[in-house]
Amino acid sequence: MATILTMQLPSDDECDSDYVTSEHSSDDEGNTKRGKRKIDIDAELSSRRRTWINNASTLFEHMLQDSELTYRHRSTVDKSDYMLQFHKKDASSTVRKNGKLSELERYITLNCSRISNENKCLNLRTFKASCRNIPDSDKLKQIQEAVLLQGIPEKVTITKTYRFAGKMHTIKEHVAKMSRRYKQYVMSKQQTIGGSLAFIDDAVSELDKAPKISAIKKSEADWHQYKDDEGIDINQEAHKFLKNEEFLDRATMKEHTVNINARKQ
């Protein structure tokens, strides 16, 4: 960037740099030499002065160009913009040109070709309805069922024998089919012989000590067995939607009450 600090100015002693001492001579010869030397010095000073003026003018022009590039607001509107041409003022008068709605309509009419008198108003509701893809109800139902089945793991029932209070109890448990516990149960069943040699399996099971179960686990197992026998889980699943709706209604009412109390304060 050009600044005045970069300008090369002459020094104070530059005008005397061409001074040359001479030996004493006669008056006529000395006057002639001094006059000739003065003419040469004046011509050189005039040339240097012109150079300094040109350099200063060039530097000033560069400074103006840099200032315009630095502080000029960049235009974000194209000069050929349609509405910009409409809002331009009329140079022949002080009244602003095209300042009314009728003039805008006339301007649009002059610059647009109207082939037919068809109504060009766009109904957004109709346009949105035409853009929507109306899904097939049957396919949508299948997709919803597939999503529900994907989210709910498939469960199977396994039987385990435990020892509690000196007695053997068989407990049914519901586990996920892809769980590790079910895989261990299947592997243990595959190790049995079966068939005509099933008595060997019974003998081995008698030799193996059944694992003990605590009172808390036994009560939990009895409760699960009772729910399966009475179908309590099935009834809860059937009424889960109503319970969720009731909870949401209570939460909405609570939020409304809090807002009313906040406004009163």
Automatic annotation (TrEMBL):
Pfam short name (any one): BCNT
Region entry Disordered, spans: 10-35
Record PROSITE patterns: BCNT_C (PS51279)
Domain of life: Eukaryota
UniProt cross-references to InterPro entries, sorted A to Z: BCNT-C, Swc5/CFDP1/2
Domain BCNT-C: 194-265
Basic and acidic residues composition bias: residue spans: 24-35
Entry-linked PANTHER family: CRANIOFACIAL DEVELOPMENT PROTEIN 1 (PTHR48407:SF1)
Identification of the protein by name: BCNT-C domain-containing protein
Native species: Babesia bovis
